[in-house]
Write a structure and sequence with these properties.
Layout lengths: L8 H4 L4 H4 L7 H14 L4 H8 L6 H8 L8 H8 L2 H13 L1 H11 L3 H12 L8 E2 H10 L4 H16 L9 E2 L12 H7 L15 H14 L9 E5 L15 E2 H6 L3 E2 L10 E5 L9 E3 L13 H14 L16 H13 L13 H14 L9 H6 L1
GO biological process, one term: peptidoglycan catabolic process
Protein name: Lytic murein transglycosylase
Keywords: Signal
């Protein structure tokens, strides 16, 4: 599920100007020829490049999947209940014990709790069982040729070429997810080049077949993305009824001590270090569950940009570490589909940057909703409702 965004966005700023300015679209054959010429000009052996790209084909199924990510329109409670089952919890905890030595090493070297990686492992490939059967080269070249996000995927084609030169990628047989991710935790070629770790000590980095390799590599990547050693990421809280709802959301951060002075309490146990900066999240508004998000929570968005996915993954990680099931409360029904798009159009017409009119409640739409609610005298919890749409 890393398809919404992947950490490669961080790489784009370091690309040579020729890669950043490269065109997309047009004849697919001419596009592949352009990739070939650029690779050779960059110093790659011409015969190797031709061998690597000789079988590249456009995959219409990849484009259909790219355009059809409707699951991210699902509200948090429904989404999390779909992804988190007792079976997944049980298997995750069992795998945590089975690979205890690997997770202990990760906790020692990177300060990342095992629940975090177990949750990614579960959501990305169901603990390695479903890794995808799309030809990886075709997926990458197809998405690089497509003009929606070429700046993300074109560099990955050249990273895959480097893996091929190392003997770690077969353009004919390497398969993975539709967006080009490979292995049990779904990493793109550039991520593998920069963060691949031989976790099992066999001298190879095999993210498809070796759980220790995949887990250690994912830990190294998260650490490189800014994970703060030994710190928490998310915790369920109980909010006071008189809280200023406009302070909720990732746009507002205060110290844990300041939140405590406002009456925020942990639902189970105690809040973490009072000096940490944190935000309060109410994924389905004031009537639903509430969480405090610590700095490490923001690192999740370098893995995936969907707020719903990120919150679910972070919450599942806490469950794997013993946290109770969240209190779902009684949230007001939200908007979906055409009505959500109608709200986005209304907000955009008023000058708000909500991104694409796609029916997905992303960060831009949430912020716009919160601001408009405040202007209309409604509780500014960032949750879009029929009342808000009616008022607009």
């Amino acid at each position: 599920m890393r398809e919404v965004l992947l950490s490669v966005a961080l790489v784009c700023g370091a690309l040579p100007a020729s890669a950043q300015q490269a065109t997309c679209g047009g004849s697919f054959e001419a596009f592949v020829a352009g990739l070939r010429d650029e690779a050779i000009t960059s110093g790659h052996d011409a015969a190797v490049v031709r061998q690597f790209l000789s079988g590249a084909r456009q995959d219409p199924a990849v484009l259909r999947r790219d355009r059809g990510q409707g699951i991210f329109q699902t509200p948090f409670i429904e989404f999390s209940r779909k992804l988190i089952s007792q079976d997944r919890l049980d298997r995750g905890r069992a795998l945590g014990q089975r690979f205890d030595a690997v997770f202990s090493r990760i906790e020692r070297d990177f300060g990342i709790s095992r629940g975090v990686l177990l949750a990614f492992w579960a959501f990305e490939t169901d603990y390695g069982a479903v890794q995808g059967d799309f030809n990886t080269l075709n997926a990458l070249v197809t998405l690089a040729h497509d003009c929606r996000r070429p700046e993300i995927f074109r560099p990955q084609v050249f990273a895959a070429l480097e893996l091929f030169e190392q003997g770690n990628f077969d353009p004919a047989t390497t398969t993975g997810a539709w967006a080009g991710e490979i292995g049990q935790v779904q990493m793109l070629p550039r991520d593998i080049l920069e963060n691949g770790v031989d976790g099992d000590g066999d001298g190879l980095v095999r993210l498809k077949t070796s759980a220790p390799d995949a887990l250690m590599s994912a830990a190294r990547m998260l650490s490189g993305l800014g994970w703060r050693y030994g710190e928490p990421w998310l915790q369920e809280v109980v909010l006071p009824p008189d809280i200023d709802w406009s302070r909720t959301g990732l746009e507002t951060t205060m110290s844990v001590a300041e939140w405590e002075r406002l009456g925020v309490r942990a639902r189970d146990g105690a809040l973490d270090d009072a000096r940490l900066e944190a935000s309060i999240l109410v994924p389905q508004g004031r009537g639903g569950p509430a969480f405090i998000a610590y700095p490490n929570f923001r690192v999740y968005f370098e893995w995936n940009q969907s707020f719903t996915y990120v919150t679910t993954a972070a919450y599942f990680a806490t469950r794997l570490q013993g946290a109770p099931v969240y209190d779902a409360g009684s949230p007001v029904p939200g908007l979906a589909g055409d009505r959500m798009q109608a709200l986005q159009r209304a907000l955009a017409a008023r000058g708000y940057d909500v991104g694409a009119i796609d029916g997905i409640l992303g960060a831009g739409t949430r912020a716009a909703v919160r601001d408009m609610q405040a202007k209309l005298g409604l509780p500014a919890d960032g949750w879009p409702t029929a009342e808000l749409l009616s008022r607009l």
